[in-house]
Amino acid sequence: MDKIDRSNSQWKALLTPAQYEVLREEGTERPHSSPLNQEKRKGTFVCAGCGQPLFKSETKYDSRTGWPSFCASIPGAVETKVDRKLLIARTEYHCARCGGHQGHVFADGPAPTGQRFCNNGIALRFEPD
Ligand SMILES: [Zn+2]
């Protein structure tokens, strides 16, 4: 995978202000604000920053959190780091290609993975099969 490395001003020109805040500044969208919460078709959720496929529709589930949630990412598509912005350390994950922030992953997801990728819908684009 070729990494994408753009300056902040280049990203600002490519993204909407709301996308920029989430993808490049690790912002969090308002819960229940993303139309992707209701997306139930078969397809692929790709990074809104660079188009890298991140999640398949088969791994999406309703976590009732108000954010699109997945129990597994496409292998190698995301990377993680520890986020200490809150008192409790969380695991942040981002697109492995462009570094765009997607969300946080928690260990309270459904079987078989037990993982919950809690994703900002605005950081994703859905491509139906
Ligand atoms: Zn990306």
Sum this structure up briefly.
The protein is an alpha+beta fold and 129 residues long. It has helices at 8-14, 17-25; strands at residues 43-47, 53-56, 60-61, 69-70, 78-83, 90-95, 101-106, 116-119, 124-128.
Polypeptide structure, described:
The protein has helices at about 10-15, 15-25, and strands at about 45, 55, 60, 70, 80-85, 90-95, 100-105, 115-120, 125-129. The protein is α+β, with helices and mostly antiparallel strands and about 130 residues long. A six-stranded antiparallel beta sheet has the order 3-4-8-7-6-5. A hairpin with a 5-residue loop joins β1 (about 45) and β2 (about 55). It is globular and about 40 Å long. The mean pLDDT is about 95. It binds zinc ion (ZN). Zinc ion binds next to loops.
Please bin the fraction of helical residues: 10-25%
For the sheet with most strands, the description reads: 6 strands, antiparallel
Number of helices: 2
Neighbour order of strands in the largest sheet: 3-4-8-7-6-5
How far is it from the N-terminal to the C-terminal residue, by CA? 23 Å
How many strands appear in the DSSP assignment? 9
Topology diagram in text:
Elements: H1 8-14, H2 17-25, E1 43-47, E2 53-56, E3 60-61, E4 69-70, E5 78-83, E6 90-95, E7 101-106, E8 116-119, E9 124-128
Antiparallel strand pairs: 1-2, 1-9, 3-4, 4-8, 5-6, 6-7, 7-8
The protein binds zinc ion.
